[in-house]
């Protein structure tokens, strides 16, 4: 990101997502969570590097005391971005709930809807409406249903333009 560009405000983000289909809101939440995971992993690696400098007795004492300022700055900037992204996930949740829906995207820590007893196991996705009964789907079941829906869409080619 260049020094001149700034992310959109929370208010602009909330306005921008109002017209998104619910599926896109969940997709955006997944994308943001993925980004948060990458930033957190990066921060762990940067911290490990800084710690290695501070404990490396082959380096001069002043270098060990300083650590790596660029890495420290990057960790701080990543933390700011992570907090902004968590705020956006909250805005996505609020938008789904504003529409009368129930948020079922897994929260940090493997929680669904803030309740630890509703955790979603790895490899499973919470089912959405469209006749699935609200249960959980395995990756294979979800893939099968998506393929069926795509085939249905292919059979309805005369129902307008698809981009």
From TrEMBL:
List all Polar residues biased stretches: 113-130
Segments of skewed composition (Basic and acidic residues): 99-108, 137-152
Gene Ontology molecular function, alphabetical: protein-macromolecule adaptor activity
Which GO annotations describe the biological process of this protein? proteasome regulatory particle assembly
Residue ranges, annotated region (Disordered): 99-163
Quote the InterPro entries the UniProt record gives. TMA17
Q: Where is the composition biased (Acidic residues)?
A: 153-163
What stretch or stretches form a coiled coil here? Answer: none
Name of the protein in its database record? Uncharacterized protein
Organism, by scientific name, is Exophiala xenobiotica
Q: Kindly list the organism's lineage.
A: Eukaryota, Fungi, Dikarya, Ascomycota, Pezizomycotina
């Amino acid at each position: 990101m260049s020094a001149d560009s700034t992310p959109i405000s929370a208010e602009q983000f909330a306005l921008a997502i109002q017209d998104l289909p619910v599926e896109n809101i969940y997709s955006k939440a997944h994308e943001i969570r993925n980004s948060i995971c990458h930033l957190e992993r990066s921060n762990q690696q940067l911290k490990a590097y800084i710690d290695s400098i501070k404990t490396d007795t082959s380096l001069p004492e002043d270098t060990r005391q300083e650590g790596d300022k660029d890495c420290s700055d990057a960790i701080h900037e990543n933390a700011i971005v992570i907090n902004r992204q968590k705020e956006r996930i909250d805005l996505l949740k609020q938008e789904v709930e504003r529409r009368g829906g129930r948020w079922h995207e897994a929260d940090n820590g493997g929680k669904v809807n803030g309740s630890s007893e509703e955790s979603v196991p790895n490899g499973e996705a919470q089912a959405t409406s469209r006749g699935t009964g609200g249960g959980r789907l395995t990756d294979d079941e979800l893939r099968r249903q998506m393929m069926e829906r795509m085939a249905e869409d292919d059979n309805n080619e005369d129902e307008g333009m698809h981009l």
